[in-house]
Structure to design on (81 residues):
């Protein structure tokens, strides 16, 4: 008899920008945080207002699609282990 055991790993969930949300100057928000593959970023940038983005291992880049918002700091880059 073979028995397979499946281990489900759940990532942590982060709200981008904490209580301020996705806004100008958010580019420093990842500083001091340790992310890993499978973590979820919650942000209100998309249509539902409760969208979740699962991180991939390595570099993850997020920008605002509105003209000049990236220049004003509405972007983040983070590394997930």
């Amino acid at each position: 008899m073979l028995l397979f055991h499946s281990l489900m790993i759940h990532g942590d969930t982060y709200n981008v920008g904490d209580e301020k949300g996705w806004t100008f100057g958010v580019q420093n928000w990842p500083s001091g945080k340790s992310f890993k593959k499978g973590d979820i970023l919650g942000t209100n940038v998309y249509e539902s207002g409760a969208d979740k983005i699962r991180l991939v291992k390595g570099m993850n880049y997020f920008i605002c699609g509105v003209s000049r918002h990236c220049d004003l700091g509405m972007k983040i880059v983070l590394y997930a282990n």
